[in-house]
Amino acid sequence: MVGFGTYQMPRRITQQCVTDALEVGYRHIDTAQCYGNEHEVGLAVKASCLPREEVFVTTKLWGVRGYGDTMRSIENSLRTIGLDYIDLFLIHEPSGDFISQYQAMEDARQMGLLRSIGVANFMQENYLNLIAHCKVIPAVNQIETHVYRQQTAMHRLLQQHGTWHESWSPLACGQNGFFRDPVLQAIADCHGKTIAQVGLRWLLQQGIDVIPKTTHKQRMQENLDLFDFSLSDAEMQAIKGLDTGRSQFNWW
Questions:
Q1: Burial 93-124 (b: 16+ CB within 10 A, else e)
Q2: Model-wide pTM > 0.90
Q3: Which among 50, 77, 124, 218 is most buried, taking Cβ atoms within 10 Å?
């Protein structure tokens, strides 16, 4: 439910950051082909000496058109990351012939190269188009979700069809004054927690998993320390009032 994100993480520090994340207790690491750090993620996973089945690795497809180049791209990710299989493989965005891309992913899953498959940044129209043509319902849809873009309608739609809702940028990258928000600060003060912890807990209590990113080991630990408190119904409702319904990044 709480993964470690590596978006915009330079290759020169990725291996150490992922090593730190695994040391403090993360078992879900999220990367992508276009992040350019799959190799370093794989190095950290292998160097950790953790059993492979205890570490859940996500990566994402990028820059392909259809079936054939998707299969080649999957094989390239496996070589780059240096693992025998990928736990979760996502289409990073709905571009190109994503129906054929997904069919290739279904076949790679059948071959044992991918344990589970899904999508990212698929809003209603593209998501419904995909599930009308696929054999395997996407396990995950990773979409921008945080207190300022709560994705309530998409959450219901994903639940209806059996796809897990995963949040990218669960802390809104600090946009919109997130770390100074008076509503979040008041709730954080009541629980002796940080604003980040409140924002993450709010998502978790709705069954939305999160992949916060930080390069600081202390904050890695703080972002995991979410299971010794819960938000009241009144606090959940107060945070619902922060929704702007808009992307903070001019994205989708």
A1: bbebebebbbbbbebbbeeebbebbbbbbbee
A2: yes
A3: 77
Sign of the torsion formed by the C-alpha atoms of 210, 216, 220 and 223: negative
Q: Give the chain's radius of gyration (CA, Å).
A: 18
Neighbours of 192 (CB within 10 A): 9
Active site residue 148: no
Q: Which helix (H) or strand (E) holds 223?
A: helix 217-224
Residues 164-194: tens digit of each pLDDT: 999 999 999 999 999 999 999 999 999 999 9
* DSSP label at residue 84: S
Q: Give, as one character, the DSSP assignment of residue 140.
A: E
Annotated domain spans of the chain? 4-240
Cβ atoms of 85 and 78 within 8 Å: the answer is yes
Q: Active site residue: 35, 102, 127, 148, which one?
A: 35
